[in-house]
Amino acid sequence: MTSMLYVFGNPEPLRSSFSQELRRHAQRSEASILLLSDHLKDETFSTPSMQAAVEEADSIVIHAPVYWYGAPALVKAWMDQILTPGWAFPSHESKLLGKSIAMSLTVGAAVDTYQPGKSNRHTLETYFLPYQQAFEYCGMNWKGLAASQVPSAAPVEQAAKLHFNKTIELF
Asked: Which run of H or E residues covers position 60?
């Protein structure tokens, strides 16, 4: 069995019942959990401990709400601080080489509005190409993204379970 690290990039995870329920599903699956908001001190992460957590996992999921067509600044700061030269790249020397990665996203609009001709004009995959490129540059296997609208018509427990399963299916 492969080990999975679930990185939660919601800056205010306690305000999101969906995020809390999703975290319960990840814990039940025996994934390691990393709440970025708990590890940011004075706008800085402990790079060695963050890198160690990532190195221990075979697969990584980054979960975040979509803010203005991208991940929250917390996710970008984490990437900027841990994807360091000599550790994350060049890809042939990367400690991330061969690891699988996917993104788990929540959006406020219906997911089907993220396509040409609809209100959000482009696919979520298009908006998240820079993340895909960064991870592939580090030698990782991009598995794609899973997205769900939050809030949804379904009860939060059911919506989170469906989203969790959709994310796991990427691997």
From this structure: strand 59-65
121 contacts: CB under 8 Å, gap ≥ 6: none
Q: Is the Cβ–Cβ distance between 61 and 6 less than 8 Å?
A: yes
pLDDT per residue as tens digits for the range 7-53: 999 999 888 999 999 999 999 999 999 999 999 999 999 999 999 99
Topology (CATH) of 4-168:
Rossmann fold (3.40.50)
- Note every long-range contact of 82-90, with CB atoms under 8 Å and residues 24 or more positions apart, other chains counting: 82/45, 82/47, 82/50, 82/51, 82/54, 83/134, 83/138, 84/47, 84/51, 87/51, 88/138, 89/137, 89/138, 89/139
| Cβ atoms 148, 159 nearer than 8 A | yes
For the full predicted model, state whether its pTM sits above 0.90: yes
